[in-house]
Amino acid sequence: MNAEDRIERARTLYERAVYSGDARVLAxxxxxxxxxxxxxxxxxxxxxxxxxLDERARSGTSPVEDPAELPLFERASELYQSLAxxxxxxxxxxxxxxxxxxxxxxNETAIPYLDRSRRLxxxxxxxxxQAEALRHLGIAxxxxxxxxxxxxxxxxxxxxxxxxxxxxxxxxxxxxxAYVAAAQDRHADALATLDEAAAIAQxxxxxxxxxxxxxxxxxI
Length: 220
Fold this sequence. Notes:
Elements: H1 3-20, H2 26-59, H3 69-82, H4 86-103, H5 107-124, H6 127-143, H7 147-164, H8 167-183, H9 187-203, H10 207-219
Helix pairs in contact: 1-2, 2-3, 2-4, 3-4, 4-5, 4-6, 5-6, 6-7, 7-8, 8-9, 8-10, 9-10
């Protein structure tokens, strides 16, 4: 059910409880509203994260963290767990890990969230969230100097992103793979990877990724 259906069902169950005296149905109504709240919290947290990324790109420095972002993701995770919604919990855990990694620059805290997200997503066949978690685990490995692990994580993320049709995400991963290749002294591979990333990004209007490709070229 979508959010509108859940809210309408909660209204119907309310009326049933009031007019028929069957208060047992209120628990079902609350579960429906918990699901709506979880989805809304996750969506609102993602918007705050996008604003952080936009401000960082425009200013060239790391913005101040919005104090509402982490509580939104944590609330979503709590609600999804109470609803036994493994797919939703995997996504919420990913965003908690992503915040710690990207906003707070704290990989030590981020990695357990990202790894649990990956495992839960794989469990329910959620390739999109699994690919996101793998990408950020690859980033963490790269930052720690574990280059082969980083390469494996990013390549697996790219495979999953191709399967779900997330080609701009594939291009983003290729930028990371190019940096890894350069660090491994595979400069020809790095440049070829950036060429492919640029072609994919341009074909899909992923202007942010195009800029990342050009920045990578200037450093490799």
